[in-house]
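chain below, 497 aa
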Amino acid sequence: MTAFRIPSPPRSVALCHSPQWRFLMLEVLRRFKQRYGCAIHVYVLAEAGVEFYAKHAEPGLVDSVTIRKLISDGAQTPFEGDHEALADTARAIEHRYGTTYNEIMMTDRHIGRGFSLLAPGFPRSRQSESTTYESILSNFNADFSFWEKEFDDKKIDLMIFPQKIPAVVARQRNVPTRNFTRTRIGELFHWSHNGEFIELPALAARTAATEDPGAPVELRVYGQYEINKRNTVAGFSYGRAIRNACQWTVQYLLQRLSGRTSGYTWADTARYHLQIPSQWREMRALNLATASDLAKAPYVFFTLQEEPEMSLSWQSPESWPQIAYLWQFARDLPAGVRLAVKEHVYAIGRRPKGFYRHLADFKNVLLVDPLLPGPEVVRGAAAVATITSTAGFEAAWIGKPVISLSRHSLYNFLDHVWQPDIHPRGLRGVFDEIFEGKFDPRKAAIDGARFHKALAEMSFDIGSYDMSKPEQFEPGWIEAAVNALEESLMDSQAAVS
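prediction:
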């Protein structure tokens, strides 16, 4: 008899194909098939995905491969029918799952672009321009029906890399979901739970059981990230923009010749490439705060995030738009405290016209030089406010007060983390407690170090894996990933029992 490591191993595993992880995940599925004999069902976006598994998966490994397009691709078919019946069906599904269709729409950068208020410069697409509200409702109705039938027919009891709608269906059926998620510590990754919001529910208990490491966490500036950032900034020239626009033109023409019916529009994407150097120069012309400027007075650090972005619309749909938080923080800060705002370099070119100049109109706002290393700004801050940025993790690790604007952040359980939306006195009450010293900085530093250690222990290392070369990896990485997946499933089963 086979000795299962997982007490109740999955019998039917579903994978929503993720191209950048395709070879690594194929090995993970192969190990699971060998250990547990489970059925494996893969869902791909296009025929290219079917061809990949036909070529690289040996007979018997994958039980089915099904094409299921992204929600924006499937919503391009015009709706012709009873509008009242369409809405009635949609509302019934919303009621059944406790999730609105509009929240699901937010997760797609094409049909949900209206929710990205700080990214009007993000290129429009054929999906964003050729869909209607009714066609989206119709497609969502069909998508829920499809996934309900898949879960029923294939008896799916584990889903990996779910899209939003199958994640919602899985949650309602108590089917575990797992996502391959960057831990933000070196090259570590972990298997996050709840594909609807990307969480790690066992982390609080693991942190409580973790001993004090005995030393505070040293924040690091990761070399590859800084190289990528500076390479990106080095490309903010008009010469590079023109080259990019020309390359895009060739790519666009090839897409049209191939008969592709989705993708970004030519004019908007060409305009976006040219807008990047213009917006970069607009920001650099302002009086940007340096490290010495920040040291002159206490400040709360607020990191802007790029839009549209999964970490905002998918992981934190309950959060307000970033522009609303900017306004609220500038209004509610105590006298003498500044709001230090740092732009994400990948968002350059997407922001509204005149956005940075408008930020400078707030007298208590400092626009930080985006080339200043984030950890340096975090260390000097009185507090860090964030929706889902890495700065929130860094602040939590070193015991710095964190103002968390997401209900699903992994560090929300820590005592030095405040959530204004559930605080009895809102944001002003949070500021009062932070600036009146109503927290223990020594305890916060110890708790942060324990949190950092626990998160690292729940993660695994995939070394120098390069997403541009997905077929290159070491066998040890696969073993680590599979062992961590098994452990995460055992944690879930232990919590239920």
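Residues 235-285 form one domain. The radius of gyration is 24 Å.
thats it, cya
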